[in-house]
Amino acid sequence: MKSKKISTKEILMLADTDSKSEWKSLSDEDRKIVKSKFWLMNRYASLVRNKNKEKEELAILATNDYYNKNYMVVAKDHLELQWQLLCMSCKNNDSNTKHEWIPLNKSTSNKVSKYVKIIAEFFPQMKIDEVELLATLSTKKEIEQLIRDHGLEPTIYL
After folding, report:
1. H-type alpha helices, 64-157
2. Residue 61 in contact with residue 54, Cβ under 8 Å?
3. DSSP element (H, E) containing 26
4. Under a CB-based contact definition with an 8 Å cutoff, are residues 15 and 90 in contact?
């Protein structure tokens, strides 16, 4: 398939029709576009709308088992394999399958950023990646307790 710029919709249609061999016929420009959208495809491939509930569930399982499992291992250096894994995870769909976007949960990210500020204030010696990890893993109760442990009132911070 040769085109000026391949769209997300076209990429998903090729994957849904199990077009593993299409990778070789893509132009270099299209391969770069597909490469830049591999992470995005992971989110689209896992959510399909179908009257058959089993196909919807299979899309999630197949995406997780085939595409996500070793994503970081193959994503950088093995682009054709990544393409084939995407096609494998979508192969039970047809070309008319409707894929939807799974939006990121903004409320969670807002909460985590608030927790990051609190933890960073109480532990200035921690590296930022450690602070972010701790903020992601912490519950509201744990953050409230942390604030109390420092002799402060949680309502001021939260």
Report:
1. 71-74, 79-90, 106-122, 128-137, 140-149, 154-157
2. no
3. none
4. yes
pTM of the full predicted structure?
0.61
Q: Helix (H, G, I), strand (E, B), or coil: what is residue 113?
A: helix
CA distances from 134 to 57, 74, 122 (A): 32, 28, 12
Please state at what angle helix 38-46 crosses helix 79-90, rounded to 10 degrees: 10
Lowest mean pLDDT among 2-6, 58-62, 94-98, 145-149: 2-6
Which H or E element spans position 104?
none
Q: In the chain, what are the helix, strand and coil shares in percent, each to the nearest 5?
A: 65, 5, 30
Q: Is the pLDDT reported for residue 44 higher than 50? A: yes
CA–CA gap between residue 45 and residue 7 (Å, rounded): 15
| Cβ neighbours of 53 (radius 10 Å) | 8
